[in-house]
Amino acid sequence: MERGEDASPPAAEEDDFGYRLFPDRNKKQQQSFLVRSLFTFHNRCQLMLRMTLETNPYAQLLLEAMKQSGCTVFNDRHFSCENCDGSVSGGFDSATSQIVLCQNNIRQQAHMNRVVTHELIHAFDHCRAHVDWFNNVKHLACSEIRAANLSGDCTLMNEIARFKFGLKGHHQTCVRERAIRSILAVRKVSKETAEKAVDEVFDACFNDLEPFGRIPHSKRDAKRAYKDFQNRDRYTANL
Fold it and tell me: Which of 47, 170, 211, 234 is the most buried (most CB within 10 A)?
């Protein structure tokens, strides 16, 4: 452009809210069940999902809590195994109330357990609260903090597997880092904006342990939390 002409300011890059990471979300027509069933990734994803929903205490507690909150989860309606960008394992699509499981990136049952639990926490937050996922980054930050804190993402064994070690306060550090990373993956905001949002809501959201009532650091903890949750409901019913 020659000097002297009026230069228009560059258009702001439109935020796609992370949908670029889930290309199958943009397909107008879903493949038929028969065609999708021919793919090994899809079959494996469905089998691992079923195993998680039937045996994993983290997922079982969240499913029960959502049912009691009026948001019953149905396997065929609320879960979708799809191909995703290589940088993500799953996501919660609030527009359709669906959990996306990245069939090309989830290869182990333990990984499936964590992803389903993480995304179910987002679904639980969506059910119980008026979360403004698209316009309020603090709301997103809060749910990401809770998901990282309660899903097992930051257990000692998982952190060792990532070659990250720490003593006092390491769990909180892990939760903060993973929440910031999750925000940056799905929102076109600066790292400073993501860090500020996480830090401003961290204490309140880190200490919001619903529906577990504790931080389940292991499967044993999750089983205890599930049992306590069931007993709590029985007690309430008898009042």
Answer: 211
Is 210 among the catalytic positions?
A: no
| Given the residues 64, 82, 119, 195, the one annotated as active site | 119
d(CA 78, CA 95): 12
DSSP assignment of the chain: --TTSPPPPPPPPPP-TTGGG-GGGG-SSPPPHHHHHTSHHHHHHHHHHHHHHHH-HHHHHHHHHHHHTT----HHHHEEEE---TT-SEEEETTTTEEEEETTT--SHHHHHHHHHHHHHHHHHHHHS---TTT-HHHHHHHHHHHHHHSSTT-HHHHHHTT---STTHHHHHHHHHHHHHHHHHS---HHHHHHHHHHHHHHHHT--TTTTS---SHHHHHHHHHHHHHHHHHHHT-
For residue 161 the two structure tokens come to 């597997």
Mean pLDDT for 88-105 is 95
> Is residue 226's pLDDT more than 70?
yes
- For residue 231, give Cα distances in angstroms to 55, 56, 202: 19, 18, 30
pLDDT in tens, 47-86: 999 999 999 999 999 999 999 999 999 999 999 999 999 8
Highest mean pLDDT range out of 52-61, 150-159, 160-169, 219-228?
52-61
